[in-house]
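Ex. 9. Protein: LysR family transcriptional regulator.
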Amino acid sequence: MIERYLLRYFLAVIDSGTFTAAAAQMAVSQPTLSAGIAKLEREVGAKLLRRSSQRIELTEAGSQFAVHARRIEREFNLATAAVGGIAQPATLRLGVLTTIASGELAGLVARISAEAPGLAVELVEGNATVLAQQLARGRVDLALTAVQGDATGDGEALRSEPYLLALPVGHRLAGEAALPGEALAGETMIVRRSCEALPETSRYFTRRGIRPSFALRTPNDDRALAMVAAGLGATVVPASHRHAGVANPALIGFDLRRTLVLVRGEDAREGMAAVVDALRGVFGGSGADGV
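Predicted structure tokens for LysR family transcriptional regulator:
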């Protein structure tokens, strides 16, 4: 029988990313934690972690085991709370793509609060790669992510949307419905570092001989748009990213679209149906100039 403390050691390592941090989290020495992981691997008969000088990675067996380990730990905590007479509210962990518009995300949270008032929701942000890893490891129960084009894999497509320019409303080109990339020659740009379409955007302008200067490089989309409105520069955003003082002409020849996708984890959790309905209601259909 696998002892519970070994599962907790294992989960601490994959959650913290290092043996040192996991040992501190579990209040044991690093040799003790390492010995525990080695014992766990012997008991399950498989290598669970791949160690390198820079990071810890799950093996394929480790990824599969992590889902069950997290489920066991969660059920243990629920059983303990039930026996102790502690009413523990259900918590659903929702992975959210970093580039989801804040206004829409706030609308989702408000809708969940109204339709499932007893449900606690934990939001976990990340890019598409990180969210896929979090799902595989059981760190999130659902993920709202995006893919380029229409290939949704195992997920449920919610909405497709184009990318648009973001210009200050006082800009000389802000009144145009659509603009060629060449019209931005000599303009200052803002780089959205979290943008999943950043490589394609860069290639689009480079192929047209546009090599702009950059006034800001930021992972924060709200800040990027606030700086566009203030006149610092222009950028490219998904159509759902609206901001006061910002005009959004189409970018001629930049036909890339993203599809927002809902992906479920392996476990069916309490409250999941309500959250799925809310996601469909807020992000489904043809909003934000989608189709």
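Check your answer against this statement. Residues 4-83 form a domain with the Arc Repressor Mutant, subunit A fold (CATH 1.10.10.10).
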